[in-house]
Each structure stands twice: as C-alpha cells, then as structure tokens.
C-alpha cells in the first residue's frame, strides 16, 4: 500500500485554515482533503505546499493560498452536474478541485508551458473531465457556453463581457476585481438577466492579462 505522507498535512490544512475560517460545504472540504497539493508545486517547495500562503509556480505566477481556493470554490455552489469555466489554469490545482466537484471543467491558460504541465499532472492523477486550452481566457470559451459556474483566478479591472454573456441563467461567477495591487473577491449571480453582487473580501492576485483584462 502506498503511504500518503502528506495526508496529515492536508488534514491540518483543512481543519486549521479552511474549516476554522468558516468554509462549510462538506464536498469542498472533502475535495481539499483529497487533492495532493504538494504535486502542484515545484519539488523544492513540496514541504511548504500545505502552508497558509500562495507559492510560485513559474512564469511569475502563483498557486493561490488554500483558503482562497476553498472560498472561491464554495462560492460556486457546485452540486456535481455543472459545466465550469476556469480562467487561469496555472498549476492545475484549482482545476483538480473543480474536477472533483463538477461534471466538466473547461480551463484556459495564457502560458503554454503552464498549461502543458497542468495537463500532464491532471492526466497522471486520472482526471478525465478536464479540457485545457491555451489562449486569452477573457474571451471565454463560446463553443462550450453556457456555464453554470465561472471562476477567474487572476485579477481584472471588471468582469469581462464575454464571461458575463457565457454565464448560464442562475449561474455564479467568482473573480478578484480591482487594480494591479489590491482587489476584492466578487461573486455575481445572474438571475433574470440581472446581476446580483456580493463582496467576499480583500485579496491579492496576479494580473488577468488579455483583451478584457489588463495590458501585458
Ligand atoms: N488557479 C491557479 C492559479 C493561477 S495564477 C492554480 O491553482 O495554480 C493565475 C493564472 O492566470 C496564471 O497562470 C496566469 O498565467 C493566468 N492568466 C492571466 N491572464 C490570463 C488570461 N487572460 N487567460 C488565461 N489565463 C490567464
């Protein structure tokens, strides 16, 4: 039997960083307990993978702090049958969490090398319900729309219009909105074509770079 040396670290992470801060969705906690976060960071950072902070993943990008991953995921209210659009594949960690909780995940990353690495790892872990493509995620993935949930894991000045258009009726979109230095995590729900907005708190993400994001 293969011993998972990081199981305890993961249990501590879920208890002390995530459940203790008010994340309640049992499916989200279960997914965070299951996905081996240490495989999504560089070899040299493995022992820090379950710490309460983001870590570098190459190309000047970062894997988000575990609590922020849990908070954004819970806000999407996934029950298991959704098509989810993710902008900013990065390491693929958030993608794996989503793949545990939804029917299919469509994820877009602008750096080919990050997309390639994420693809390889998600394949090795056996995720079969994930499509990844390289490109400008602010344009969305129109051929696969509408999406019941959309998550943007990079910060932009506003919700990109194509993403709003590709959000299903009753759908949830979560994204950090602000300037390059500080943002607020915003959840919007689309109901009767109208937008209902909730502020989930101050955050700091890397830039969303694209047509409906920031300039490079
Ligand atoms: N969710 C990731 C963290 C991603 S960091 C994880 O769990 O590891 C944000 C990512 O968004 C970076 O990889 C960055 O390259 C990507 N990104 C920024 N602008 C983008 C855009 N317009 N389209 C697609 N990806 C973008």
How would you portray this structure in words?
With 216 residues, the chain is of the alpha/beta class. The chain has a domain of 150 residues: Rossmann fold (3-Layer(aba) Sandwich), CATH 3.40.50. Helix content is 27%, strand content 28%. The chain has six helices and nine strands, in the order ααββαβαβαββαβββ. A seven-stranded mixed beta sheet has the order 5-4-3-6-7-8-9. Strand 4, helix 5 and strand 5 form a beta-alpha-beta unit. Helix 1 packs antiparallel against helix 2, helix 1 packs across helix 3 and helix 2 crosses helix 4. The longest helix has 13 residues. The radius of gyration is 16 Å and the shape is globular. The chain starts with 6 loop residues before the first helix and ends in a 13-residue tail after the last strand. The site of S-adenosyl-L-homocysteine (SAH) has 26 residues, from strand 2, helix 4 and strand 4. S-adenosyl-L-homocysteine (SAH) binds next to strand 2, helix 4 and strand 4.
Brief account:
Helix content is 27%, strand content 28%.
What are the SSEs and their pairings?
Layout: H1 7-18, H2 26-34, E1 55-58, E2 61-63, H3 66-75, E3 83-87, H4 93-101, E4 104-109, H5 112-124, E5 130-134, E6 147-152, H6 161-166, E7 167-178, E8 183-191, E9 194-203
Parallel strand pairs: 3-4, 3-6, 4-5, 6-7
Antiparallel strand pairs: 1-2, 7-8, 8-9
Helix pairs in contact: 1-2, 1-3, 2-4
Bound molecules: S-adenosyl-L-homocysteine.
Q: What would you give as the CATH superfamily of the domain at 54-203?
A: Vaccinia Virus protein VP39
CATH topology of the domain at 54-203: Rossmann fold
- Briefly, what CATH class of the domain at 54-203? Alpha Beta
DSSP strand count: 9
Strand residue percentage = 25-35%
| C-alpha Rg (nearest Å) | 16 Å
Order of helices and strands: HHEEHEHEHEEHEEE
Give the overall shape.
globular
What small molecules does this complex bind?
Answer: S-adenosyl-L-homocysteine
Rounded mean pLDDT is 97
């Amino acid at each position: 039997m293969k011993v998972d040396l990081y199981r305890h670290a993961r249990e501590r992470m879920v208890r002390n960083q995530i459940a203790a801060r008010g994340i309640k969705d049992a499916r989200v906690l279960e997914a965070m307990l299951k996905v081996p976060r240490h495989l999504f960071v560089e070899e040299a950072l493995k022992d820090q993978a379950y710490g309460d902070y983001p870590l570098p993943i190459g190309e000047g990008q970062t894997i988000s702090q575990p609590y922020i991953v849990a908070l954004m995921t819970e806000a999407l209210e996934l029950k298991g049958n959704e098509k989810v659009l993710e902008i900013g594949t990065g390491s693929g960690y958030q993608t794996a969490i989503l793949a545990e909780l939804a029917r299919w995940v469509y994820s877009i990353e602008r750096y080919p090398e990050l997309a390639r690495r994420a693809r390889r790892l998600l394949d090795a872990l056996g995720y079969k319900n994930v499509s990844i493509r390289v490109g400008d995620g602010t344009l969305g993935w129109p051929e696969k729309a509408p999406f019941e949930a959309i998550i943007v894991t990079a910060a932009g000045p506003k919700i990109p219009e194509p993403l709003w258009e590709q959000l299903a009726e009753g759908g949830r979109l979560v994204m950090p909105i602000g300037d390059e230095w500080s943002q607020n995590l915003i959840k919007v729900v689309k109901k009767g074509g109208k937008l209902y907005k909730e502020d989930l708190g101050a955050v700091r993400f890397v830039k969303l770079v694209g047509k409906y994001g920031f300039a490079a």
